[in-house]
Amino acid sequence: MAKFAVITYSTYGHVTALAQEIAKGVESEGAKAHVFRVPETLPQEVLEKLHAPEKPADIPVIKPEDLVEYDGYIFGFPTRFGNIPAQISAFFDSTGGLWATGGLYQKPVSFFVSTGSGGGKETTVRSTLSFVAHHGLIYIPLGYGKVFDKLTNVSAVHGSSPWGVGTIAGSDGSRSPTESELKTAYIQGSEFAKVASKLAAPATAKSEPVAEQPAAETTQEASDVKKTAETEVKNAPPPAKTEKSGCCVIV
Ligand SMILES: Cc1cc2nc3c(=O)[nH]c(=O)nc-3n(C[C@H](O)[C@H](O)[C@H](O)COP(=O)(O)O)c2cc1C
């Protein structure tokens, strides 16, 4: 059974609420989902000044080395000026050892967000792409395919984009995720699990037995292609005169 980690940072709980729905969506596809949080980097006295509630006791803190135990990752975080929060950035930085050994190479990853007003919901996810590229992770966006009605519904406020599900917390954090946002989170989880579980399957299960084919050179088609190519080379015009300039050849 494929096993996925839903990895969050949340100051006020909006991201946590989406994470629970994403995990349910993952499990609806027969995969396992474990919800984690990254280490907090703010001192307790600052968190108190921010009126941040206690972290949920049932969500364990993830360590970078735990990542290798999972077949893929769905990261969720609130935006900070259209960017990822420092807590997520610090966690990404702590994966340097895994980068060096290719520990996350070609594992699937997806993202989701919470924003106060919606400003920065797309750039926040986009700012993770260097992390994705350097690890060789495979990015699975939400897209429009299964949530077209929800993403294009302009009569209801929502915090999602094709980059990932999102919620809008309100400028004072008083808005809770709506039913539609929670449903979108569930769908992102289930759609991610469908694709990511295939990538997680053992190599032997992935490769279908292939019927034996005659060698390409012996088929009539291959011989015709070869003849056409030879004729094209024979009839080709002489190469154009070139003028060398710096590093490049200008024809
Ligand atoms: C320093 C800082 C920067 C923020 N920048 C943005 C922003 O660019 N756009 C926005 O809509 N909300 C912004 N917010 C609001 C947070 O995104 C909001 O508190 C968060 O989505 C709530 O999610 P949480 O309950 O999971 O922590 C910012 C909050 C802080 C503290």
UniProtKB/TrEMBL annotation:
Low complexity: bias regions: 211-222
Location(s) in or outside the cell: Cell membrane
Biological role: Flavodoxin-like protein (FLP) that plays a role in cell wall integrity, oxidative stress protection and virulence. FLPs act as NAD(P)H quinone oxidoreductases. Reduces ubiquinone (coenzyme Q), enabling it to serve as an antioxidant in the membrane.
Main location: membrane
Molecular function as annotated in GO: FMN binding; NAD(P)H dehydrogenase (quinone) activity
GO cellular component terms given for this protein: plasma membrane
Membrane topology: Peripheral membrane protein
All residue ranges annotated as the Flavodoxin-like domain in the record: 4-193
Domain of life: Eukaryota
Assigned protein family: Belongs to the WrbA family.
Biased composition (Basic and acidic residues): 223-233
InterPro entries linked: Flavodoxin/NO_synth, Flavoprotein-like_sf, Flavoprotein_WrbA-like, FMN_Rdtase-like_dom
Location of region: Disordered: 203-251
Protein name per Swiss-Prot or TrEMBL: Flavodoxin-like domain-containing protein
Organism: Ogataea philodendri
GO aspect biological process, one term: cellular response to oxidative stress
